[in-house]
Structure formats: structure tokens, C-alpha cells
Amino acid sequence: MFEFVTAGPPSPWTLFEELESLQSDMNRLLSAPEARPGRRSRTSYPPLNAWTSEEGLTLDAELPGVDPAEVDISVVGDELSLRGKVNVREPAEGETVLRRERPAGEFQRTLQLPFRADTGAVKATFRNGILRIRIPRSEEEKPRKIAIESA
Amino acid sequence: MSETKVMPNEASVPSPESEAVFVPRVDIRETADHFEVVADMPGADDKSVEATVQNRVLTIEGWSCPEKPEGHEPLGQEFGGGRYRRDFTLPDSVEVNGIRARVRNGVLSVRIPKKEDVKARRIQVTG
Fold it and tell me: Is the dihedral of CA A41, A42, A46, A51 positive or negative?
């Protein structure tokens, strides 16, 4: 029923590394937690899942606790940038922080899309801490059936 | 040793019978009148999250089953659904009956009030 990252088969990282161009990966997380119990020790934030179809690409980003108003998604041509702030809060008066493991700070991730996007039609929803971005292919990149005319 | 703070039980999780359990990352805060445990449980909602207290051990659990988009082929995966679980030992100074939990945007917050007699009080000093 569930898929577990921790106990799964060899992960399909290579696909993702291809998707993510080294030069444009300007990922940055100001205060990465020292202890990351139970999760992979991967530095890129936020973690992403991606799927493709003839229509385009669907991208899920794990961003628990983020304020959607603090997330900026931009798509230019075949490049998608995701940046924002997460868990940036000043301690309340009289409050002591006993433990801090959750990521906090600014993040930015830039991905090379495998196609040129229809930038005007990109849509995003945020539910239970998961941001889902739907990126349609531009019309000229969609597979097209060519009618064969009889001579 | 008697703890006076809310502490995660590192040895207790993941539980031996289930290897595929995520240990949620937590922040723990203390004020004069309560503790607060804040846990990242992306993908979980109020129906799939549980907080229980037994013998001064607080257990938080949650389930995430991300919805995969229809008609798509996977390209890359950096996170998955699954079960979250973590235990915490509570100090004697807390009022277990007053514990309240809520989940919002994939984050569970558990508020643990201190007993009346241990709450720090500000005493008015009169001249």
C-alpha cells in the first residue's frame, strides 16, 4: 500500500540527477538540521518527486509547515525555480527552544525541465504540507499525430 | 535520573517490528506554563494523525499516502509515503490530561501544559 524510501529498492536518483542540472542547482538551506532521524541525508531541499506524461510534468515538493504565500514558483522556458522561506519564526517571549531538528531558513531549487513549458498554464496546489506543481508542455512540444494524406 | 524536560526516546524508535517507519523531525519549546512538540509529518492530515499518552510516554503517529498523478510515468523520487512515529518521555511536572494536539499543513503540534504548582509565576513586587 505504501512506498517507503527507507526500505525501497535502489532509488531512481540517477534520473533526478539528470533532470537537475549541476550548474543551475543553487540549492541553499540556511540552517540544515544536524540530526535527520529516519530520513535520507540528502542536502537538496525541498525533496521532490516528479512524474511525466504526454501533457507535461507533475512535481511534488515536501514542504511541511510552509506558508504558501512565502513560496515563489517561476517557470521560464525549460527552467523551473522554486524558492521561499520555511519555519522562519522568532521565539515567543519567555520561550526556550529545547530541540530544533526541523529545517528552517530560505531555500532555492532550480530544475531543468525535459521540455519547454507552457508557462502561462502552470498550476500549483498545497495540501497537508505537500506542494504539487503541474507544468504543461508548450503546444509545439506535445506529441502530435500526423495525418497521412492519400496521393 | 528524573528528567524535567520533554525528551524524545531515541532508542524506542523505529519500532523493531516495522523497519519502514519515518522518525519525524521535531522542535521542542518550553514556556513558563507549557511545553510544545512540533513535528513535521508531510502528507498526513487530522484523520491520519494520532497522539497518545501512556505511562508518561507521549507517542505521535501519522500516515502519509501521497496521491500519484494519473496517467504519468515516474521520473524521480526523493520522498515517499509511509508511517511516522516517535516517542517522548514526559516529565512529572506536566498535566497529561490537558494535552492538546492539532495538525496543519503537514505539521503536528502537541501542547503539553505544566501542572499548576510548577508553573513559573511572576510575583508582583510592591514598594
Answer: negative
